[in-house]
Amino acid sequence: MTTDIKIRPADGTWVVRAGGAVLGESSNALELTEGDLPFVIYFPRNDIAMALLDRTDHTTECSKKGTANYYSIMSKSRTYDNAVWTYENPAADVAEIKDHLAFTVQDGVNVEQL
């Protein structure tokens, strides 16, 4: 595995909310740490209300993880553009994050441990 990326099961149950609505809750989330950056929680896609997400054309490249595809969150009060990312075909060293989603924490979007 890439030496500065660590992936492990996230302890406990995690929830993601946007615009006051719960988008998902999981006891099977993953915690990814990369170097000195804050950890990121990756939720299994099956634990997220995908009907509240809208796929966008936006992508980014990471030399260690691969191509990230994005979704916007559609809440009652607003749209959070490109606030969700996923690696649909991640690099072999981070294959565990396939079929998982991560969320950009911002005003109105929260990821919390219950």
UniProtKB/TrEMBL annotation:
<feature type="domain" description="DUF427">
    <location>
        <begin position="15"/>
        <end position="104"/>
    </location>
</feature>
<dbReference type="Pfam" id="PF04248">
    <property type="entry name" value="NTP_transf_9"/>
</dbReference>
<dbReference type="InterPro" id="IPR038694">
    <property type="entry name" value="DUF427_sf"/>
</dbReference>
<dbReference type="InterPro" id="IPR007361">
    <property type="entry name" value="DUF427"/>
</dbReference>
<protein>
    <submittedName>
        <fullName>Uncharacterized conserved protein, DUF427 family</fullName>
    </submittedName>
</protein>
